[in-house]
């Protein structure tokens, strides 16, 4: 069959047309281009990672898994993240598309694998959106309690109906800002991300000061042994810690989902992704070391292994460490969570837009707002699904926050590993053409993908037991397993339904399984 390469009306996009006139390449979707520069995309990436939220939600469970080896596990978890980031850069340079994993896995492995990759990304984002909203609710009422000097206000988060209603309000506000496009998003993010980083820096300084002055009874002395992964006692502890640590780095890939809307296109998005990952690593290590020094890893008082502290570490540490400035930490986590709730909305919305555009989802998902140039219908659906998911999980389990974080690690490992392997297979004909290609397209992606695959399977096996995570179960099976593997299985069911309703995409009529030789970027 003969193919003709045609340039799309969107810069950097090409399509392949066969003799019958069927398009197989990536094409523009009507998104408004040139809205974000490098700094804006990095800020968007940091916002999506949400350092304050990620740390307050994960430090407790991670300490339970690996103890004082917390810094070591965070550094090790960063390695597959940065290796996968190289794979993202290579694929984005060849085929910049808001569908990212969905589009690239389809081009590498075909429509069925690509659809599941897109589902994995969507599921991870929907889970974290609901989780972000839940943490925002907790800190909203804590903030009110601190402002009005009434501790009883903080207990309002325990009222299930009020908690769910407040959560839905936060989701609705995030949808409203996201619907108005990336320009509105950018204005919100600059202030909120900046404030979040400043407060974390203040916390680091004050925590170290308390730890070294002897003011904290739980304080422990700094040790380089904390950075030694060989001291982690078992492989199960290692994978549990990795699954949690992988979660805290996740979110930088939102930089790639806005690649059709950035200045400089594929170059800007790729640089922003790796810059975000490296910046977040430095911030995390500083906060982790300071937190361990002042709180210790015991189960008493403000110790990180105290069950009362583990679901929300900064809520427990803010007052002892920051005194009257504790309200700033509550506001930082609240603003960071709210900003991440809004910025993270960009990823599933643009992924669903791409899936609708290429016929993998109903055509309505491909709708772009004429006024704001944003994926309007997909944004509304992302908000509706995430809000509904939180409401259901809050009714099912009071420990929804911890369990969804553990399950989220499974989703992240699944679609990140798939993207890494897609990079090596897609570029298979050029892997040995240069040293650079060997490293960036084969060695780094495969190593990153293998590590994440091992973590995925080990976590899946461990999470079958109810004691993994919060101890919640459904028919004797751990809730973490039900959430993680169950949602992936549900994706396979939806895929089969869509294959019957919209067979064109699954027959390769919109995106063709090919190699870079057939689709040459501008």
Keywords:
about 525 residues, mainly alpha, Amino acid/polyamine transporter I, two-stranded antiparallel ribbon, 19 helices, 4 strands, about 65% helix, disordered N terminus, disordered C terminus
Quick recap:
It is built from 19 helices and 4 strands. The protein has 522 residues and is mainly alpha-helical.
Please give a structural write-up.
The chain has helices spanning 38-49, 51-66, 70-94, 101-109, 111-148, 160-179, 182-213, 235-249, 254-257, 266-295, 307-310, 313-322, 326-344, 346-357, 376-396, 400-426, 435-463, 479-501, 503-506, and strands at residues 3-7, 14-18, 473-474, 477-478. Helix 4 packs antiparallel against helix 5, helix 6 packs antiparallel against helix 15 and helix 17 (435-463) crosses helix 18 (479-501). The strands form 2 sheets. The chain has a two-stranded antiparallel sheet. With 522 residues, the protein is mostly helical. The chain has 19 helices and 4 strands. The protein has one domain: Amino acid/polyamine transporter I. The protein is globular, with a radius of gyration of 22 Å. Residues 1-24 and 517-522 have low confidence and may be disordered.
């Amino acid at each position: 069959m003969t193919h003709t390469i045609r340039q799309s009306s969107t810069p950097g996009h090409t399509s392949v047309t066969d003799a019958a006139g069927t398009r197989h390449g990536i094409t523009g979707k009507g998104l408004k281009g040139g809205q974000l520069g490098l700094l804006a995309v990095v800020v968007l990436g940091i916002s999506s990672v949400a350092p304050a939220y990620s740390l307050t939600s994960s430090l407790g469970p991670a300490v339970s898994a690996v103890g004082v080896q917390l810094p070591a596990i965070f550094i090790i978890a960063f390695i597959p993240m940065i290796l996968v980031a190289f794979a993202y850069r290579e694929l984005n340079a060849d085929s910049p598309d808001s569908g990212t994993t969905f589009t690239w896995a389809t081009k590498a492995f075909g429509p069925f694998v690509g659809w599941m990759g897109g589902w994995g990304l969507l599921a991870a984002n929907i889970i974290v959106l609901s989780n972000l909203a839940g943490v925002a609710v907790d800190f909203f009422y804590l903030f009110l309690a601190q402002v009005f000097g009434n501790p009883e206000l903080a207990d309002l988060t325990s009222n299930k109906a009020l908690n769910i209603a407040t959560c839905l309000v936060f989701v609705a506000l995030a949808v409203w800002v996201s619907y108005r496009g990336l320009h509105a998003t950018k204005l919100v993010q600059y202030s909120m991300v900046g404030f979040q980083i400043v407060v974390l820096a203040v916390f680091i300084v004050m925590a170290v000061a308390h730890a070294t002055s002897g003011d904290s009874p739980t304080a422990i002395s700094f040790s380089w042994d904390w950075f030694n992964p060989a001291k982690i006692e078992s492989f199960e502890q290692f994978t549990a810690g990795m699954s949690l640590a992988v979660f805290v780095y996740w979110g930088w890939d939102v930089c790639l989902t806005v690649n059709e809307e950035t200045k400089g296109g594929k170059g800007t998005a790729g640089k922003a992704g790796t810059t975000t990952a490296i910046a977040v690593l430095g911030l995390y290590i500083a906060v982790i070391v300071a937190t361990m020094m002042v709180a210790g890893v015991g189960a008493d008082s403000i110790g990180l292994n105290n069950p009362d502290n583990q679901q929300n570490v900064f809520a427990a540490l803010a007052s002892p460490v920051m005194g009257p400035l504790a309200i700033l930490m509550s506001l930082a986590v609240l603003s960071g969570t709210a900003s991440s709730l809004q910025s993270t909305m960009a990823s599933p919305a643009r992924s669903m837009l791409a899936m609708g555009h290429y016929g993998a989802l109903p055509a309505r998902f491909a709708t772009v707002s004429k006024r704001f140039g944003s994926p309007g219908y997909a944004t509304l659906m992302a908000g509706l699904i995430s809000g509904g998911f939180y409401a259901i999980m809050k009714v099912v389990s009071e420990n929804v926050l911890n369990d969804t974080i553990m399950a989220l690690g499974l989703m992240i490992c699944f679609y990140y590993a798939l993207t890494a392997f897609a990079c090596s297979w897609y570029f298979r004909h050029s892997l040995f053409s240069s040293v650079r290609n060997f490293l960036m397209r084969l060695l780094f992606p495969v190593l990153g993908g293998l590590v994440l695959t091992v973590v995925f399977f080990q976590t899946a096996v461990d999470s079958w037991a109810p004691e993994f995570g919060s101890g919640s179960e459904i028919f004797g099976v751990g809730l973490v397993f039900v959430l993680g593997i169950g949602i992936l299985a549900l994706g396979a069911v939806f895929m089969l339904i869509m294959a019957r309703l919209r067979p064109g995409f699954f027959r390769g009529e919109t995106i063709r399984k090919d190699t870079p030789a057939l689709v040459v970027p501008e």
